[in-house]
Request: fold
Amino acid sequence: MHLREGSQRFMDTHNADFERMDVKMIEEALVSEYFENGEDSLYRVYEVRAD
Reply:
């Protein structure tokens, strides 16, 4: 998923909640000028496990 600053803060704030639900970040990379206005994006890949 590509995240803007506000979404990054949301995901970081709720990281412990996500881990309790077996959702874990497995990869992260900065993508320069991803959005139309030239704004950078933080690209994150999450693994979701359902038992």
Remarks:
- Residues 29 and 43 are 5 Å apart (CA to CA).
- Strands lie at 2-3, 23-31, 41-48.
- The chain has a mean pLDDT of 91.
- The longest strand covers residues 23-31.
